[in-house]
Amino acid sequence: MLVLGLACLGCVEPGFEPSLDGASTQAEHDWTSESDSDDGADSETGDGEPTEPTEPAPLPDPPSSPDPDPEQPNPQPSGCKFDLVWPTTGTDVAQTIVHDAYGPRLLDGSYDWHGGIDLPGHSDDGGFFDPVHAVADGSIHAIGNRPSPNQGALSNYGPSAGNVIILEHAPADLHPGADTLYSLYLHLDTMNLEAFAARFADDINTVVNVDLREYYYLGGSGTTAENRGHKRPTFKSSGAPITAYPRVLRQDPIAIIGDSGATYEHLHFEIRETSPTSAHARNPFAYLPHLDQTQHTASLSVEGATLRALVEIPRAGGAMGSVTDLSQQLDIADISLQLRDLDNEVIDELRVVLSEIGQLDDPDQPLLDLGGVALTLSPSDFDSSSSSWRLAVDFVGLGAIGLIPILGDVYVLEVTDLCGNKFTTR
């Protein structure tokens, strides 16, 4: 059975991280962005001493849960455990219609690999007013506003990421046995980092306005292009060791959707497993609530020497920023081309695991090598108004590795979603 790793054609080597268990080969302070990275040439100067914290404005009540559509089936937990709420609705019963999905996409007409999902704000409301919520309890891992339009908010983040928050969610914040997760929030409106509403573990039910410059390198003493936006080991003013960093609770409002570094108002949202580096980005639908059932369909066709697999996920599109129920399910995990015998037993297979593509040195190449088979990914245009997400996968060279039907063998396409639901076709 051939369940093979991917390599991009033309790359020197596949470029996978040796381990995905959190033992990153990158240095402790190598924080990788979703796109282009900071060149490290900029420098920081002091921005004055911290101001006295003001009395915090009370947080708004947690978002109310709209009544789910009674005609929609309830989620059936066959393989997913949804620990998070949606960052834009703040609930586990309503989603924002996705404008750009995780994985293969077209960006300005060209193929691009997308490490997260894009959730628009309401651009017709005359400003930035749509709140961003913490998807789970956690601590602030890194945070920052861009010092200038040409500088990234965090070290190794390019300016196109805009203003950024990264939250760290330990297993105790999720459920026993869970992996540590990092949730990333990009393109935010400017944040008040001198009086940021947060909490501390020793009095978690109390919200205080925190001067984050005391806890993070946000200008002034010790801030460099290599540590900007990340944790200080000691307080900026006193130099005393920091023993507890600011936290947030699930559903807490943490920012406002903006357009910093972007061409339109939206939240770019990511989930990274075990490490905050980009190679650990996973499809957020593995954790965001949605219906746990088979929504996707697939088909196989032959076009000359090419075997084409077409995967489609239907959904109800809508206006940018609009909210829907839990039926939106953009959650393809892997695409398996199988060779089966007359008894329907699997003889061999080629499996494309979408999350592995994001670990390549250059995931933005649509032409890949899968054990000697040339693989081309062709996503269709997709935005908030789209009624379906479609991806064509072309296999060329199956005969060269002996993956061809003989004596009654047949090709079977099996597409699995993140909850383990499968759609199989011949």
Put the structure in a nutshell.
This protein has 426 residues and is mainly beta. The chain is 1% helix and 31% strand.
How would you portray this structure in words?
The protein has 426 residues and is an all-beta fold. The chain has two domains: 117-282, Distorted Sandwich (Glucose Permease (Domain IIA)); 291-425, Immunoglobulins (Immunoglobulin-like, Sandwich). Helices cover 1% and strands 31% of the residues. Strand 14 and strand 15 form a beta hairpin. The relative contact order is 0.21.
Shape: elongated
SSE order in H/E notation?
Answer: EEEEEEEEEEEEEEEEEEEEHEEEEE
Work out the helix count.
1
- The name of the CATH topology of the largest domain is Glucose Permease (Domain IIA)
Average pLDDT for all residues: 85
Low-confidence stretches: 10-78
Give the amount of beta strand, in percent: 25-35%
> How many individual domains?
2
Helix content: under 10%
The computed structural class is mainly beta
The description of the largest β-sheet is: 7 strands, antiparallel
| Total beta strands | 25
The CATH architecture designation of the largest domain is: Distorted Sandwich
In the CATH hierarchy, what is the class of the largest domain?
A: Mainly Beta
**Rg measurement, Å:** 23 Å
- Tell me the distance between the termini: 18 Å
Identify the notable features of this structure and list them briefly.
426 residues, Glucose Permease (Domain IIA), Immunoglobulin-like, six-stranded antiparallel beta sheet, 1 helix, 1% helix
